[in-house]
Design goal:
The structure is a single chain. The protein is mostly helical. It has two domains: 58 residues; 213 residues, MetI-like fold, CATH 1.10.3720.10. Helices cover 88% and strands 0% of the residues. The chain has ten helices and no strands. Helix 3 packs across helix 6 and helix 3 packs antiparallel against helix 8. The longest helix has 56 residues. The chain is globular.
């Protein structure tokens, strides 16, 4: 009789768990749908309101065109916009890709050597306090009108968040773990590569996400100053002819390029998390 009661209780417990799992799955699915749908619905509502307000107030298209005119420009000049967007995206990826090892290596040196930390970090901070836009023309003077000046200026803007975030992550190793590593005879480089870097990955990717948004800003600023191609150049060209709808269409594509770089960074973070989790 005791076995029958125990078996019945197990069956009833299993039946109770199934609705609970379904509720958890439904709640998780609702969270994911909310994460995707809410921004889309808000953006759609904003565009509809924009269209209605501009039409009702009869705002001149040269000042603020309706979203329908911007969409028309995207459709009519898609090949032209795409051509310039490809150059901006390529230069952004180059600058962003080069800023990552620069920031990580400098952060590793700052963490590894207190002397380098005292000598390098204050000077880097001083350079970051200088208004970046004021230095943009100097990069054109030093490196000429071309890709090197724009990429270098973009690296100058976006490597600093990677440096600070990585240094913070590398220095966040708990003291007890550091003592444990030293007790087994681990060297500073072994601790840095095998312990500090894996623990600093969330910090590194946080800095990379910030740098991803700054990299495209640096490229566009360079295109504003001296360039014959790119979305920055096309925006200035359209603005000089009072084609505000074309300028806003380019800005919309520019936002898409920025989201692409940010999305690739977030995807890399997930892949690293899966790899590191499977490794451990």
């Amino acid at each position: 009789m005791a076995e029958i009661e125990f078996t019945t209780g197990t069956v009833e417990l299993g039946r109770e768990r199934k609705p609970q799992r379904r509720r958890l799955l439904s709640a998780e699915l609702g969270d994911h749908l909310g994460t995707v749908l809410l921004p889309i619905l808000f953006a759609a509502a904003s565009l509809i309101l924009w269209q209605l307000v501009v039409g009702w107030a009869r705002v001149p298209p040269a000042i603020l065109p309706p979203p329908s005119d911007i969409a028309t420009q995207l459709a009519q000049n898609w090949s032209l916009i795409l051509k310039h967007a490809m150059q901006t995206a390529n230069e952004t990826l180059i600058a962003f890709g080069l800023s990552i090892p620069l920031g990580v290596v400098l952060a590793a040196l700052i963490t590894w050597s207190p002397t380098i930390n005292k000598a390098l970090l204050p000077n880097v901070i001083v350079f970051q306090l200088i208004p970046k836009i004021a230095l943009a023309p100097l990069f054109i003077v030093w490196l000429g009108i071309g890709l090197p000046s724009r990429v270098t200026f973009s690296i100058f803007i976006c490597f600093f968040p990677i440096l600070i975030a990585t240094a913070t992550g590398l220095q966040s190793l708990p003291l007890d773990m550091l003592r444990l590593c030293r007790s087994v005879g681990a060297s500073n480089w072994q601790i840095l590569l095998s312990v500090r870097f894996p623990m600093a990955l969330p910090f590194i990717f946080s800095g990379m996400k910030i740098a991803a948004t700054l990299a495209i800003i640096g490229i566009v600023v360079g295109e504003f100053i001296a360039s014959r191609a790119g979305l920055g150049y096309l925006i200035l060209f359209a603005s000089s002819r009072q084609q505000t709808d074309l300028s806003l269409a380019c800005i919309a594509v520019l936002c898409a390029v920025g989201l692409l770089v940010y999305g690739l960074t977030a995807l890399a973070e997930r892949l690293f998390a899966v790899w590191h989790g499977g490794r451990t």
